């Protein structure tokens, strides 16, 4: 790459580094360390190909300033956990927002494929959900409670079992991103096709609204969380496939650290979804419509705000005036 092209490609990023060092926007030591790694990659590249250039002097100066800033400001946060959820994760989500778009688009497309498959293949739902589940649900529909299956087991037993299973699914969906994102897409595809065929099955049986009232009490957070975990898996895969100006190993380190933080942020929502499924969903058939609708919309609003709106608010607040 010619030097002028190298400068043009990275100019905006270096200006952002300057703002982080000399501007009013505050960054914590972890973020500064991340900037330092990125800058050292650029400096190493410049030293290799433009050894006598002023670009090397400039980057070396920025690197030294960031290094000093890290060790001058490196102290424990007054409340690291609050900072993690309040500031750190939203800023990371903002930086990787396009991966959330990819995850949502692909998920909804594959949900639609699942519904279409269920419509045109009478045996598709049994293939995906299993004969025993379908037969039991058909019996429950005849008895007037299509989501009675969620009443099985004790409250605490269901909550613990469901939560651990959902955490396992989410972790698998994320970790499989190491296979270039293909593994993550495969897990997401399975869940999306299951969801699409599952909901179309209830539509065919004429109990779609009853199923929505029950399933989506916990499903709003559970499914939304899976999509976010899918996005984290895509970020992990992209860090391996598209290292840009970094070495592949440094790109992977940055991608893993940031995507893992996004994954960790979904854990409270997964636990909350497990609690709702274990303690609330089983009573949905006896709830008034307004209450079940409120729970669904409220839980969806919370998780949607945190991942789709709040990152933009935090990003705007941290920008220099």
TrEMBL record:
Keyword set, alphabetical order: Membrane, Transmembrane, Transmembrane helix
The transmembrane residues are 99-118, 174-203, 223-242, 262-285, 291-313
Domain of life (superkingdom): Bacteria
User: One Pfam annotation, family name?
Assistant: SpoIIM
Enumerate the PANTHER family for this protein: SLR1478 PROTEIN
Q: What is this protein called?
A: Uncharacterized membrane protein SpoIIM, required for sporulation
